[in-house]
Design a protein that fits this description.
The protein is an alpha+beta fold. It folds into two domains: 39 residues, no CATH class; 123 residues, Death Domain, Fas (Orthogonal Bundle), CATH 1.10.533. The chain has eight helices and four strands, in the order E-H-E-E-E-H-H-H-H-H-H-H. It has a two-stranded antiparallel sheet with strand order 1-2. Helix 2 packs across helix 5 and helix 6 runs antiparallel to helix 7. The longest helix has 24 residues. The C terminus is likely disordered. This is p53-induced death domain protein.
């Protein structure tokens, strides 16, 4: 169901009458001492021109480069699940402002997982124009925050991704054995 949703909503003063059968209560529009009004309701389709104000759509995360490696959305999700109350220290080492961290905390008051993921994605979006080495900057921030375990995991993810990237280039014949990518790694 991708189209608009139509319905109605009724407003009553006080408690909703409980002695009516559900079917009658749902369709009732008539006079009642507690009934105020019934209004038609139409919710537009989420993608329609006059639809909901959508949250900003972000292009897919393409964090990194062939030399320093890539991180994906799922990589950041995996990393975020291992960050706890030290999220703020990590955010500061990533270069996020106190205001950004406060806004993230306010937006995700009761959900630490969403808070951490929001922080990592805010940082990642800021890295789009920061040039190569985003993965290296994330590793450095984790080390500075005392999370060597996460720094090692990120390095492993990046190294595996770099190897897969190099292997795929070799498979399609775009890279010869011992090319510049492998030399950069040495």
């Amino acid at each position: 169901q991708k189209g608009a949703v139509r319905g109605q909503v009724s407003f009553y003063r006080g408690d909703i009458p409980s002695n009516l059968p559900e079917e009658v209560a749902r369709k009732r529009k008539g006079l009642d001492s507690q009934w105020l009004t019934t209004l038609p309701l139409r919710l537009p389709a989420p993608n329609s021109e006059n639809g909901f104000i959508r949250e900003e759509q972000y292009p897919p995360l393409n964090l990194g480069d062939p030399e320093s490696g890539y991180l994906t959305e799922s990589n950041l999700l995996s990393i975020s699940l291992q960050i706890g109350q030290d999220w703020r220290v990590i955010g500061l080492h990533l270069g996020l402002s106190y205001q950004d961290l406060e806004r993230i905390q306010y937006k995700n008051k009761d959900n630490l997982g969403a808070l951490v993921l929001d922080m990592l994605f805010l940082w990642a979006r800021g890295q789009r124009n920061a040039g190569p080495g985003a993965a290296s900057r994330l590793v450095a921030a984790m080390i500075e925050s005392g999370r060597r375990d996460l720094a090692d995991e990120i390095e492993d993810i990046v190294n595996l991704g770099r190897k897969k990237y190099s292997d795929s280039l070799k498979r399609v014949g775009l890279e010869a054995e011992g090319s510049s990518l492998e030399e950069v790694q040495q």
